[in-house]
Amino acid sequence: MTRSSLSKNAEQISPHWVEWLTGLFATLIVLAMTGWILWEAMKTDDRPPELSAQVLDVEPVAKGWRVMVEVRNASDATAAAVEVKGALLDGTTPIEEVQVTFDYVAAGSTSKGGLLFVNDPSRYRLSVLPGSFTEP
Q1: Which residue windows are transmembrane per the record (predicted)?
Q2: What is the sign of the dihedral through the CA atoms of 31, 33, 38 and 39?
Q3: Is the CB of residue 89 less than 8 Å from the CB of residue 45?
Q4: Less Cβ crowding at N or C end of the chain, within 10 Å?
């Protein structure tokens, strides 16, 4: 074999500019993800879940009334087994009480569900409050 045929088949010693660009891009992505994870870990505090409930809609169904509710978790902590209690009140006297359990309300998110009443909620004062939760 001649020297010219060896140089044609041998790999180049210096990498192509595309390889350098790809390596630089991958390094930047890894550094950015590591920085983001560290930032999230440092800014997160250990507050318990902060839950609130809001009525979205009230509509009649076959055997009563459905009250759609949204539960919001404003904390960085997740809540599990979130119970939302709904009550129809005539003054301070409870007419009807129901509850719904949300399996999971993630940190900084919302979940929706429904409360089913026999009585018309428009005839009474409707109270909807988160009742309890567990930390998973």
Answers
A1: 20-39
A2: positive
A3: no
A4: N
Cβ distance 46 to 68 under 8 Å? no
Strands in 125-134's sheet, in edge-to-edge order, are 93-105, 79-90, 125-134
Write out the chain's pLDDT in tens, 136 residues. 555 555 555 666 788 889 899 999 999 999 999 999 998 777 766 788 999 999 999 999 999 999 999 999 998 889 999 999 999 999 999 999 999 999 999 999 999 999 999 999 999 999 999 999 998 8
Q: At the topology level of CATH, where does 51-134 sit?
A: Immunoglobulin-like (2.60.40)
What pTM does this model have?
A: 0.68
**Position of tokens 């979205």?**
56
Distance of CA 106 to the CA centre of its chain: 4
Tokens coding 12: 């180049």
